[in-house]
Amino acid sequence: MKIARFSHNDTIRFGILDGTALVVLAGDPLFAGFETTGERVPLGDAALLAPVIPRSKVVCVGKNYSAHAAEMDSEVPKEPLLFFKPNTAVIGPGDAIVRPPQSQDTHWEGELAVVIGRIAKNVKAENALDYVFGYTVANDVTARDLQRSDGQWSRAKGFDTFCPLGPAIETDFDYAQGEVITRLNGEVKQQAPFTDMIFDVPTIIEYVTAAFTLLPGDVLLTGTPAGVGAFQAGDTIEVEIPGLGVLRNSARDALVS
């Protein structure tokens, strides 16, 4: 099922997407389950938000596609290359990506996002998918010039608005049969199957949880394929994963006073 987080009548709620309506849930399904209220909200009357705001962290994997590592003039890592985004970077579908004045080279990176559903520590790959609540679409926005100049990635990856997520969480998705497609103003820039990942989702979960605990609502970004590039204010970036939906965001420059 597809789970959305939405705003309606100035109230933020969760619901199950059912055709053109949302079946309203009694609480956050990550913690309260799937009890419904009996209310249905027309999809056209709701504003979809980021389907999850991680209470703890967004854990990301860099250079997880060989072709992307090559376009970055980098070697393929021997182990998953991890970095974090703050939860304050998360925005939802339709929200604006804000290009900060510190960067003149801001890039899209379309990715599969994994939402964790249970406390996970020292999880083995063969059991890793038992800890997954569902999947959604992500854009790992990156200030590429700052990534190069800083020598580490926290600032370049962590600006407010640099982690669009959405439009919903699909709890029943075979990611191994999927692909990611990124478009800039309607033109395809990235397209690759998830079988091209160097490290698959179970391997990533095992590696991450050997180091630190994942909590319900934490999000894993699994890396981007080749085809990253710069966008400008006024551009629209769409990241599509068939079966999960299309995450669409426009860009604007920061308002500088």
UniProtKB/TrEMBL annotation:
It comes from the Bacteria. Keywords: Isomerase, Metal-binding. GO terms for biological process: carboxylic acid metabolic process. Coiled coil: none annotated. The keyword Zinc does not apply. Residues 57-250 form the Fumarylacetoacetase-like C-terminal domain. One of its GO terms (molecular function) is isomerase activity. Residues 1-51 form the Rv2993c-like N-terminal domain. It holds the Pfam family Rv2993c-like_N. PANTHER family: ACYLPYRUVASE, ACYLPYRUVASE FAHD1, MITOCHONDRIAL. This is 2-hydroxyhepta-2,4-diene-1,7-dioate isomerase.
